[in-house]
Amino acid sequence: MFELGVVYRNIDRADRVAADGLASFGSATVHEAQGRVGLMKTYMRPIYPGAQISGTAVTVLLQPGDNWMLHVAAEQIQPGDIVVAACTTDNTDGFFGDLLATSFQARGARGLVIDGGCRDVKTLQQMGFPVWSRAISSKGTVKETLGSVNIPVVCAGMTVNPGDVIVADDDGVVVVPAAQARKTLDAASAREANEADKRAKLASGVLGLDMYKMREPLAAKGLKYID
User: Fold this and answer.
1) Number of other residues whose CB lies within 10 A of the CB of residue 222
2) What is the pLDDT of residues 197-216, one digit of tens each?
3) Total-model pTM
4) Integer Cα distance of 67 and 112 in angstroms
5) Contacts of 198 (CB under 8 A, 6+ apart)
6) Residue 121 CB-density burial (10 A; 0-12 exposed, 13-18 middle, 19+ buried)
7) Measured CA distances, 123 to 50, 118, 177, 219 (Å)
8) Alpha-carbon gap, residue 119 to 140, rounded angstroms
9) Is the CB of residue 51 less than 8 Å from the CB of residue 130?
10) What mean pLDDT is reported for the chain?
11) Which residues of 191-206 are buried (b: 16+ CB within 10 A; e: fewer)?
């Protein structure tokens, strides 16, 4: 059951160094590094390509067709935060546009992840304010019904707690629990170093078949080469 009509002001955020450091690895590496968990549903897409961010979550629960709580959430943003907005039911109206982005950006937000609609895409790109959304829609919203700010929400299939780390890029959006941020950063660093070594071998002409020792298990499964 959702907790409605509340704003939690003093949330515990994940370690800032770890939260910031995860941006350089991207969503795919972070997803793998934490055991292939935390990935939001694939319908969450960036409104324009090329953005790659990480930050700590300020969560918002919206009512369908109503963006009131995004305005309330703006006051709770601290530099380095990413606003994560869910809705009490499926809705793709245009909850967010350039005016709210201006407010969020002034507070230090790095972006928005919203399981709903977004609009003013051209202006948002010009502003350099990235958004990952379920849809793009010109349809406006009202300001009538209370939701909440900084409560646990389910956004695109993933539970997000206030202060968790969000990693988002062209490949998707991943949630890292605040308590796992440092461990995940270390695992992502190790994974990236390992992949750099593999990339160098593949670039030199070594085949994945040999690097990953695939030939024997393929033969055991019955794979035959015919000349």
Assistant:
1) 6
2) 899 999 999 999 999 999 99
3) 0.94
4) 13
5) 211
6) middle
7) 16, 12, 32, 55
8) 9
9) yes
10) 97
11) eeeeeeeeeeeeeeee
